[in-house]
Amino acid sequence: MQKQEAMSAFLKAVFNWTMENTTDYGSDPPPIDQDKMQWLRTAWESFVVDGATLLRRALTMLEKGSEEDQVLVLNHLTELVEDIDNANVLKHLRGWAIIFNLAENSPSVDVRQAAIRSLTAVLHNNERGIRDGLDEGLIQVLERLLTNASTADTHKQLIGLLSTLTQSPLFVLEYVKLCSQNSSNLIAVCKQLDPSSPRLAHLLNTLKERMALEPPSEYKTLILEWLAEES
């Protein structure tokens, strides 16, 4: 985010310097239209914005927009949070609850699917994002999503989310701790959703390769047990 702000300041400085120092107008320079200059500066400043500002605007639109708008915004948000710096301001902006609510309660299948994809993007290879999600109730939301997944509408997106979460030691250990009375094998849950899923096949291969290199840990023990149960 600091890099984006620095770049914004740099680009505005370049803009101002260029406008003030360009003299190659042929003969006499034309008079400067101050109103046009102000309009250009305002337009430039609205164009060059940081990730947190974009996220704040996106979250506002998610709360107030139509279902069509929500899908569009969620798709853009998914791209935006691929930058971990952007993903990690979601908690500060109170964005978790907004996305959780859409993933669980939107009457639109398209919105629910897009919201789950956004969650997956926030959490992917992002242990701080995992920690923030846990603080905001991620496990409880996941349990409700799985309980309510009575149709195939969101199975593909849920497998993507579970695949990301299964590769996080922090999430797996917390999940097993809270779900000790139930079947907590996330690989088995993926298989129940869609045993022929390409994403599931990729997850299995990834975990097998990773466990061959992973040092001994409680996480490794759990994953090896899960893999053995599903072999």
UniProtKB/TrEMBL annotation:
GO terms for cellular component: endoplasmic reticulum. InterPro entries: ARM-like, ARM-type_fold, Hsp70_NEF-Inhibitors, Nucleotide_exch_fac_Fes1. It comes from the Eukaryota. Keywords: Repeat. Residues 11-89 form the Nucleotide exchange factor Fes1 domain. GO terms for molecular function: adenyl-nucleotide exchange factor activity. This is Nucleotide exchange factor Fes1 domain-containing protein. It comes from Giardia duodenalis assemblage B.
